[in-house]
Amino acid sequence: MGSVIKRSGTIALMAAAIGPAAGSAWAQPEMPADPNIMVEGERISEPAPTAEMAAGPEVKGIISARSGPRMQVTAPDGTATAITITDATKVKASSGIFGTKKTLGLTSLLNGLPVSVKTLQGQQGLVASEVTFRNGDLKTASMIHTGTNQRFEQQAAATEALRGRMGDIDKYNIKSTTNVYFDTGRATLSPSARAELCNAATAAEGMDNALILVVGYTDSVGSEEYNQTLSDKRAGSVINYLQQACRWKPYRMLTPTGMAEADPAADNSTPEGKAQNRRVAVNVLVSKGLDGL
């Protein structure tokens, strides 16, 4: 998130660049001045209640700047649209292969994230009523935002090429599955789990057109909400290690997901069974349409 500073009534963005490092040629564009943005320490005006607003256009593109309650979305043709975000804005991520949507917080709206925004016509311009995006795209935007050493241009090109090949294919052959296990309530990888993950990535690297699907699970201890969060964290730990330590390319990763205590591998009534269910499954897949090519 960029911070806002005073500068003769205008707003300057001090956000990280969308590229590999701040201060590079990929500098953040400045947002236009807005009376709803904090300039002198207090809000000048509040947007009208969303119930009173007329519907606006749906805006699709990439978030190219953030400043306070405002974001800029740049379309493929280069058109930039400034949109106000409010507490009523709904933020949702689709989980891809499982076809479900998850509600997230406004902090998920990172620079570089491809989004589709439903808007309302406010007095000061467009107001976002709902922002949706792919969970996999959020993973990529988060990776860029945190400054890993992946090159944005190379990854973007490779991701688009892969989507072109995989767009109409929804069935896969499972080539292998590696399970790594976790302590109760924890999402930290053990040394043995780290070794197994890199072994799985190395084996998958030798398969033509191989993709990896990561799915996190828990045992039956705890609430459904707690276990959903924990399974997501476990899947995230595996994803981060595969990409950062095992050098698995993010664009060869299908959308990860947490499945909480669904699909238990063993009986949750015993300690041994619960231990087997506290796992993340790393599935190496090849589309049936590409298998053998």
Ordered list of secondary-structure elements with their pairings:
Layout: E1 4-7, E2 10-13, E3 54-67, E4 70-74, E5 80-84, E6 90-94, E7 101-104, E8 114-122, E9 125-134, H1 135-145, H2 152-166, E10 172-181, H3 191-205, E11 211-216, H4 224-244, E12 257-258, H5 271-277, E13 279-287
Parallel strand pairs: 5-9, 6-9, 11-12
Antiparallel strand pairs: 1-2, 3-4, 3-8, 4-5, 6-7, 8-9, 10-13, 11-13
Shape type: globular
Indicate the percent of residues in helices: 10-25%
**Share of β-strand residues:** 25-35%
CATH topology of the largest domain: OB fold (Dihydrolipoamide Acetyltransferase, E2P)
Number of strands: 13
Specify Rg, calculated over alpha carbons: 21 Å
Structural class: alpha+beta
CATH class of the largest domain: Mainly Beta
CATH 2nd-level architecture of the largest domain: Beta Barrel
Enumerate the spans where pLDDT stays under 50 for 5 or more consecutive residues: 1-48, 147-159, 161-169
Q: N- to C-terminal separation?
A: 44 Å
Our count of helices gives 5
Q: Could you give a short account of the major beta sheet?
A: 5 strands, mixed, barrel
Q: What is the count of structural domains?
A: 2
Strand order of the largest sheet: 3-4-5-9-8
Mean pLDDT: 74
Order of helices and strands: EEEEEEEEEHHEHEHEHE
